[in-house]
Amino acid sequence: MRYLPNSDADRQAMLAACGLSSLEDLYRHVPQNALIREPLQIPPGMSEYEIAAYFREKAGKMAHGYASFLGAGVYAHYRPVLCDVIAQRGEFLTSYTPYQAEFAQGTLQSIFEFQSLICQLTGMEVANASMYDGSTAVAEAAMMASRITGRSRFLAPSNLHPEYRQVLETAARNARMTVAAFPYSPATGQADLNALEQALDDHTACVILQSPNFFGVLEDIQAAAGLAHRRGALLVAAFTEAVSLGLLEPPRGADIVAGELQSFAISPSYGGPFAGVIATREKFIRQIPGRLAGETRDQDGNRAFCLTLATREQHIRREKATSNICTNQALIALMATVFMSLCGKQGLRELALQNLSKAHYLAGGLERPFSGRFFNEFVVKPKRHSVEDALRILLEKKILGGVALKRFYPELGDCLLLCATEMNRRQDMDAVKEVLA
What we know:
This protein has 437 residues and is an alpha/beta fold. It folds into three domains: 1-38, no CATH class; 67-78 and 344-436, Aspartate Aminotransferase, domain 1; 81-339, Aspartate Aminotransferase, domain 2 (3-Layer(aba) Sandwich), CATH 3.40.640. The protein has 13 helices and 14 strands. The chain has a seven-stranded mixed β-sheet, with helices on both faces. Strands 11-14-13 form a three-stranded antiparallel β-sheet, with no helix packed on it. It has a two-stranded parallel ribbon with strand order 1-12. Strand 5, helix 10 and strand 6 (234-239) form a beta-alpha-beta unit. The termini are far apart.
């Protein structure tokens, strides 16, 4: 038993120490119908070349060559080869956590560069070393706002990503805090700021506003921030499509920015792993979750990097910790760092412009229920077919034709969420328009 090194004598000794005579005694409390009495019905083992042939066969049946217009928080962007070349170097791929600076200068520097780039991207003054993903970043941002304000109520519009809302509600419920919703405008798809103003009270810790929102519509962050600040609340600006920040203004007026960097050379990979981020103002640095890498000088005066701030349970007393997040996505964040370094300011802007122009070309002639401005994602109502039939017809053309909104919004059961990126070709966009227009 290669992976079970205990001998029969070892097992008997452990059972005897527990006052048991057999493994059956150990499992006696387990219901009989939950116990497996027969060997698992799995095929026998294969040699390495047989396994390689097996996976080649399965890969040939997958959706290679399909055009994708899926978005909703996970986007199909080009991944420069150099990102994998760097991330797969042994110094990064096999490293653990950068506790000891003398052994982890490369990892610490990559985190430091990541933090610096995120500050430039978001317009904030400080960023942490990354979060698990965008959804946990939003939840941690809300908890951070609660610590800063001493309040326990979060306001989020119904056009916040539904899965982000689920994570937020789970975190809030277990922390004995509350999440309250306010509606979106059925005309524009934007958050209803009049409803927000009415919902704000003296218990509100923060308002969370996603832009572009789940419908792809741009929000007025500055106006929402003004409403929040007048009641002593903070404004958390969230994003799922990081490429949009290459063209849109940073979220002016926001106190905390929380988002997802999957668009920056991170493969969709069936939903993860991704890399989230939190950035904020310097005055709130002591309340930021996770950890930060900083720059210093060694005993010889050379530039060096170290773990500057780590307000997490493993480093300080639990009652003083800001979060129980136990790590950061260093390797995945490295991919995003390489991507941002490759693109630079102008390259990211050009990429964002491609996304903008392709999405607006795709939207031409289609019926959009929302009039709000959008970046590379928008809601459309098929004219000739039902949503199900439209998706089926497109799939027959080897096109993944968007996300059916009925899953998240019953009132939009006859609508699709479409996304166009630099990866979409004109002929595929024309085929989508032919089916939906």
